[in-house]
């Protein structure tokens, strides 16, 4: 087991009445004015924003709003939110929505107390040293942003999608009501399930040696998603299925699933697949992140598994109860191939795509993704297996 530092300061308020606690909890920590950030009209139409505002009003906390966050959130709206947060002198940012809304709120919280352009943080021209607190109301189990240290933002003008990881990004609180997810479109529910599984796998396949305690936690989260996602799709108001998906999303990305298998001196995982997918959804911002991962992750697994087959065999046993019939090279390859097929088959069964062609991405698009990948990951990247840009091209090509 490697040495690690685990930090998860987010207070989780979980359950059917979680939203009613927002005002009292924020009042308890001294907040007086909130910037509520949200996406389109669904949060208002569903009554979620009204409930958040009512709880803030009851606690005497003033509030202003910023709507219009899109999937694969863009820096222009972040900059608008930074100016609004400054002019209104807010002391807490409250995102109500999915990962895009929460990532936008985190970026606003960093930028509001920074003299330069908030984009500086995402291209690593500057490092944040402070922020306004964020208190999240997640409505989509997927990104785990309600307790993670990450924020990912697109810049359309520069054709980039970049992330920043800092503990300053971790929300002080998250108010999580599974009933808010009942009305999610099936595609978003499915893409969210893939995103949750991918957050765990990025850590499991870090290239580091096994840690049984962490491995059991990680694979248990994945098994729970495999069990609950089809139930949620079949019966959208299945509270237990929705609740388990929502909790799995938080645990998948707060760092717990990487303890001890973290890369010494680096991140708690490989994160190559996320890097490859970010360029995909920067190429076409209509591509849902989880749907992109459903294509990219199996392609990466087929490309790299020979580097550490023992990790794949552990994953095969723990998640799918697949075993190599003996220790021969042929049996090992058969078991691992069957495992990757099983995983991709599960993604497809949820309604996720199998190839990049489903996104109308073709051979000539690959080179358009390489400059962003170079900026974000460098010319050599990956901890499970060190890859080059030519390896990235090969993985993209295999997924067409």
From TrEMBL:
Matching InterPro entries: ADH_Fe/GldA, ADH_Fe_C, ADH_Fe_CS, BDH-like
Gene Ontology CC entries for this record: cytosol
A GO molecular-function annotation: metal ion binding
Transmembrane segments: none
Domain of life: Bacteria
Listed Pfam families: ADH_Fe_C (PF25137), Fe-ADH (PF00465)
Residue ranges annotated for the Fe-containing alcohol dehydrogenase-like C-terminal domain, each copy included: 189-399
Keywords noted in UniProt: Oxidoreductase
Chain ranges of the Alcohol dehydrogenase iron-type/glycerol dehydrogenase GldA domain: 9-178
SUPFAM superfamilies: Dehydroquinate synthase-like
The protein, known as: NADH-dependent alcohol dehydrogenase
Organism: Enorma massiliensis
